[in-house]
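Notes from hallway chat w/ T.B., transcribed later so I don't forget. T.B. wanted the structure written out for a chain they're using in a teaching module, and asked if we could keep both sequence and structure tokens in one place. Agreed to drop them here.
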Amino acid sequence: MLSSRSGPVLLLELNRPHRLNAMTRPMVRELVDHLSAAAADPQVRCVVLTGAGRGFCAGGDLADIADVDARVDVNAEVAELRELHRSSQLMHEMPKPVIAAVNGPCAGAGLAWACAADLRIAAHSAVFRTSFVSAGLTGDFGGTWTLPRIVGPARARELYLLNRKVGAREALDIGLVNTVVADEELRSSALRTAQELAALPPLAVAGIKQNLNHALTSDFNSALDLEALRQVTTSTSADCGEAARAFLERRPPQFTGR
């Protein structure tokens, strides 16, 4: 895993290009560590996840899967996989926006990672595929929860059951990605968007993300209650006052996260 900072933006790069960044357990644990640290670091305001080489992530490394013993302790394996799932959970729940910058193949659990991000920017070369059913698997890393909420349940069932490849342009058409850019512009476009997000008031950004996440599983009345609470809470923040003063003084605001 490669990690670099540009001001308040953290760039995380999956680094197994010889395997199209196919997942291994050590890789996932390392990603969990980086995401946990970013979530707790007030200096980090946005995270970008991408892949080294010509692919984002081809999913789980089938070489590892082929070695699984049929006599495995199922309960122990479930517990370990659930711990690895924290990578998706952190991206979805951390109070900072996460951008997936998708280059080349994005399949299986790699697609689930991309879907756990808040925004997805795809290169023209990006190709998306669920891949699980062709490997005799049902899916993990939260994809069966996130994908239907992004593209709709009917389309998600099609993608999971028929395992059809989706190119970047179609991914944009069905709402799977937010934008498509030239391959050579992917990283700069993702970092530029990340810097835009990082310049916004952190408390408001975190509250909006929490509101949107809560709305995925709540009723309307509960969503209104939570909106009211967070709206009033952020209205008393120093950043809200700074936004008002900057508007009146016609200058760029300087947000501190307080």
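Follow-up for T.B.: The chain has a mean pLDDT of 95. Might be a good example for the class.
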